[in-house]
Design brief:
Length: 219
C-alpha cells in the first residue's frame, strides 16, 4: 500500500510540471497577447490553437486528464498531510501550508473558470470569436474581477512554489545553496507570472473588447 502511494505521489508531482505546468505557461502567454497585442491577436491565438488537428484528443490527454488527476489527488494529499512543524523551520512550514491552501483555491478557481469558458464553448453558448467579449464581461464586474485576481495569484504561487519543491524532491537542487538560489528564481517567476495575469485581466476591461466589430474573421 505504501509502495503504491509513493508511485501515486511521484505521478502527481510529475504531472504538475509536464503537462500541467507547461499548459499554464502557454495559457499565460496566449492570454497576455490581449495585453500587448490586442483583441485581434488574442482571437487569432485562440483560433489557431483550436484549429490544431485532433484538438479534442490533445486537450483530453494533455490538459483535462492530467489536470483532473493532479487536482483530485492533490486535494486528497492536502487533507491527509500532516504538517512537519518540528522537522522544518518556520518559513518552510509556511510555504508547505501555502502550497496546500493555494492548491485548494486553484482547484475551485479552475472549476469555475473552465465552466465559464471552455464548457460554454462546448455547449454552443459562446463562439471562439466571442471569448474576448466574454472575458470583458467577466472582468468589468468588480466581484468576479477580485475572485479572478485571487485565483490567478493562487495559481501562480502554487506553480512557482510547486516547482521549487519538485526540484528538491526529484534530487535536482540538493544542497542548501542550490535550494536558496532556486528559491529566489521561483519567487521571481511567481511575481512575473502574477503581474502578467493581472495585466491581462486589466487589458480585457478595455473598450476594444466590448464587441467583436473590430475582429477580422480569417479562414
Ligand atoms: C487572465 C487570466 C485568464 C484568462 C483571461 C483566461 C482565459 C481563458 C479562455 C478564453 C479559455 C477558453 C479557451 C478556448 O476554449 O479556446 C480558457 C480555458 C482554460 N483556462 Fe484560462 N484564463 C486565465 C487564467 C487561467 C489560469 C490561472 C488557469 C489555471 C490555473 C487557467 C486554466 C484554464 C483551463 C484548464 C482551461 C481549459 C483549457 C482547454 O480545454 O482548452 N486559466 N481560459
Amino acid at each position: 500500500m505504501k509502495g503504491n502511494s509513493y508511485h501515486f505521489r511521484k505521478i502527481h508531482s510529475l504531472l504538475g510540471v509536464i503537462p500541467v505546468g507547461f499548459f499554464l505557461v502557454e495559457h499565460l502567454i496566449t492570454n497576455y497577447s490581449a495585453y500587448n497585442e490586442g483583441h485581434q491577436a488574442f482571437i487569432d491565438n485562440v483560433k489557431w490553437l483550436n484549429s490544431l488537428p485532433l484538438i479534442l484528443v490533445i486537450e483530453a490527454l494533455f490538459i483535462w486528464l492530467p489536470l483532473l488527476y493532479h487536482g483530485v489527488y492533490g486535494l486528497y494529499v492536502a487533507y491527509t498531510a500532516r504538517n512537519n512543524v518540528k522537522n522544518y523551520g518556520y518559513f518552510r512550514n509556511l510555504m508547505f501550508t501555502l502550497q496546500r491552501v493555494t492548491g485548494v483555491l486553484t482547484f475551485l478557481f479552475i472549476s469555475w473558470h473552465v465552466f465559464e469558458t471552455r464548457i460554454q464553448v462546448a455547449l454552443g453558448n459562446v463562439t471562439h470569436e466571442e471569448l474576448g467579449v466574454k472575458m470583458h464581461d467577466i472582468f468589468t464586474q468588480p466581484i468576479p474581477f477580485a475572485l479572478y485576481a485571487i485565483g490567478v495569484i493562487a495559481a501562480s504561487f502554487h506553480f512557482s512554489n510547486g516547482m521549487w519543491s519538485f526540484l528538491v524532491s526529484w534530487g535536482i537542487t540538493i544542497g542548501p545553496r542550490a535550494q536558496r538560489i532556486s528559491g529566489y528564481v521561483w519567487l521571481g517567476v511567481f511575481v512575473v507570472m502574477a503581474v502578467m495575469f493581472v495585466l491581462t485581466m486589466v487589458a480585457f476591461t478595455g473598450s476594444e473588447f466590448q464587441d467583436t466589430s473590430t475582429i477580422v474573421t480569417k479562414g
